[in-house]
Specification:
This protein is mostly helical. Helices cover 71% and strands 0% of the residues. Helix 7 runs parallel beside helix 9 (139-158) and helix 10 (165-180) runs parallel beside helix 13. The longest helix has 20 residues, at 139-158.
């Protein structure tokens, strides 16, 4: 049985590339016999998979044969962003995108820029750099990109069980790079940071549903965002905002269960990178007291 299945699979795979019109009926009959043998013989999973692979190589499912057709302009933009864009070609890509009919190209170009999960993680900075260059001539693109990213981040917080973790990390990375290329200011970045640790915490029931104590993904999002742009918050008003946020962040982390080792290591690396002399709190009580002190001082000012 195993030999028959292997022989049939090999024959079908070899014939997949060339089907003369006069042998089409014979090949279809051969495939039908092969599948009947597969069903009646006691084959193991490896042999069954080999037969199935050979069959579908000759007769692909209808869905596999249907390739999505896009207008040439859209295919061209996808080619530039997903295939051509690199450190050495970004100027050329920017120049070519600037030549496109902007009213027609901008909506789909925004859609492509948002698909940051399609590019390598280290290339997200190139997407932000490209958007920054285009925004110098078309303000609407920079504003639209930031608005759409913020909407996606908020949606991810409202639907944490939907997965897409890699995409959500890429979105906050893009947001941080957008700040680096001056597409938004520091106040917007800190609004996002506070949203990451405070969203859905208005009530205990909602917090347990959307951000339970054993879920640490929001901490990963904060780390991803601050690792991207936090080095620019070293002094001035932005530096003071970061000092304030890190106090709130420590209270948020202390309210969680014991952190996984990788998250704890990344968090400590972030603290050492941004504030080597940061005052660390040993318990949630100490961190909550520091937060209350900050709020009291701001209320009295």
């Amino acid at each position: 049985a195993a030999a028959a299945a292997a022989a049939a699979a090999a024959a079908a795979a070899a014939a997949a590339a060339c089907w003369p019109a006069e042998s089409k009926v014979r090949m279809e009959n051969l495939l039908a016999v092969m599948m009947r043998l597969r069903n009646v013989r006691n084959l193991d999973s490896r042999q069954t998979n080999a037969v199935d692979s050979a069959y579908f190589a000759c007769r692909p499912p209808d869905k596999a044969m249907q390739r999505r057709r896009r207008p040439p302009l859209q295919e061209y933009m996808r080619h530039l962003i997903f295939e051509v864009l690199s450190d050495g070609s970004i100027v050329e890509v920017l120049r070519k995108l600037m030549k496109l009919p902007w009213a027609e190209a901008e909506p789909y170009l925004l859609k492509c820029l948002l698909k940051v999960s399609r590019v390598r993680f280290q290339h997200i900075a190139l997407i932000a750099s490209l958007a920054g260059g285009l925004a110098q001539y078309h303000d609407s693109l920079g504003v639209g990109l930031v608005d759409l990213v913020l909407e996606d981040v908020r949606w991810g917080l409202d639907h944490p069980t939907q997965g897409n973790y890699q995409q959500r990390l890429a979105q906050v990375r893009l947001l941080g790079e957008a700040y680096n290329y001056m597409l938004l200011d520091s106040r917007a970045v800190f609004d996002v940071l506070y949203m990451l640790i405070g969203h859905a915490h208005d009530s205990e029931e909602t917090a347990l549903k959307l951000d339970p104590p054993d879920d640490f993904f929001r901490i990963r999002l904060v780390i991803a965002l601050l690792s991207t742009c936090g080095s620019y918050f070293s002094k001035g008003a932005a530096g003071r905002r970061l000092d304030r946020f890190l106090t709130f962040m420590q209270a948020y982390v202390a309210a969680k269960q014991q952190l996984p080792l990788d998250v704890e290591a990344d968090l400590q690396d972030l603290y050492n990178q941004l504030r080597p002399r940061l005052e660390h709190f040993n318990s949630y009580t100490e961190a909550a007291a520091a937060v209350s002190d900050i709020l009291a001082k701001e209320a009295a000012a």
